[in-house]
Design brief:
Immunoglobulin-like; elongated; alpha+beta; four-stranded antiparallel sheet; three-stranded antiparallel sheet; 7 strands
């Protein structure tokens, strides 16, 4: 019974950190065309990662209609590296798509933080 109580207290104590870390925000996007219809993205994300229980775990590039064009998975927390920038190459985008939106995801809140929408260099 005592062990269960200690676990419950530990979980309750961890809740504020998990909740108050907030959503992951995209703060900067740099994009360049590397070939016809192929793009490279450098994306800066800000999130108050607290560890493995709550961290920014990916960012995505979306077409205006919401079609997923590319995903950069983030495999570990960045507790001591904020904000941080990661890259994604080889993102194919149809010539008819003139702008994209980049959004970040975290392991607790999913999507919902600041996004960046920008025109593609052609």
């Amino acid at each position: 019974m005592m062990r269960l109580l200690k676990v419950a207290i530990g979980l309750i104590a961890a809740l504020p950190a998990m909740v108050f870390a907030g959503e992951a925000d995209v703060t900067r996007v740099e994009v360049r065309q590397t070939a016809s219809g192929i793009f490279h993205f450098d994306v800066t994300v800000r999130h108050d990662d607290t560890g493995w229980d709550h961290y920014a775990d990916r960012w995505e590039v979306l077409a205006p209609d919401g079609t997923l064009l590319g995903t950069r998975t983030l495999y570990h927390p960045h507790v001591d590296e904020q904000p941080f920038t990661r890259s994604l190459s080889g993102v194919a985008v149809a010539e008819t798509i003139l702008e994209v939106t980049v959004r970040a995801h975290d392991s607790v809140h999913a999507f919902g933080g600041k996004t960046v929408t920008m025109a593609l260099p052609r």
